[in-house]
Automatic annotation (TrEMBL):
Protein name (database record): TetR/AcrR family transcriptional regulator
Domain (HTH tetR-type): residue spans on this chain: 24-84
Keyword Transcription regulation tagged: yes
Record Gene3D superfamilies: Homeodomain-like, Tetracycline Repressor, domain 2
DNA-binding region: 47-66
Keywords, sorted A to Z: DNA-binding, Transcription, Transcription regulation
Domain of life: Bacteria
Amino acid sequence: MSQSSNNPSTSGVSRPSPGRKRSEASRIAILAATRELVAEQGYEKLSIGGIAARAGVGKDTIYRWWPSKGMVVADAVLEEAQPFHLAPPPQSGPVDEDIRAWAHALARDFADPVRVGRIRAVTSAASEDPATAEQLYERFTQVQRTGFIDRLRLAAEAGEVRPDADFGAVADAILGSLMYWATAHRADLRVESVDSLLDVLLRGLRADRTDGQ
């Protein structure tokens, strides 16, 4: 969590083996087919054979470039152009307002039926495969968490929030709540659903907070 970059890491993205030329057209077809099938049938019913048939390639082609179903799903979900809100909280006003705007943007992703289906698919894959879990962390969770912590550090320097607060714990509370909402298949998430949580967290961060408030 020490990095401050806001761009997703690509350190773990699968690469073709030496001497094998990777067909970009096939790669795009495989990832598109994976996204389509995730939307239609979910992660549990997804298979490499089904992806291959939809993409018009052989299963060996998929296995040549991805070691597991989970890794295909991770790339399909996380490599899509702007699949999720990956920007850090803005620096456009009071930190409370900036964090609320950031959390609302994330909540819109988690409330969208197509995007939340992809989130569920990649989290299911991550629960089965440590390499996929690492991809999810590096390319989604860490990007969000680092940007959030960096914004709070700037707010602490400006005297807006307590410098002794555990910024990572606050980030985990927000991201973890949204992930819970998605994986629990809660259908009642709205953008405003995060406001009650934010009210509690932001009150605890305020620099002018005194005991008993």
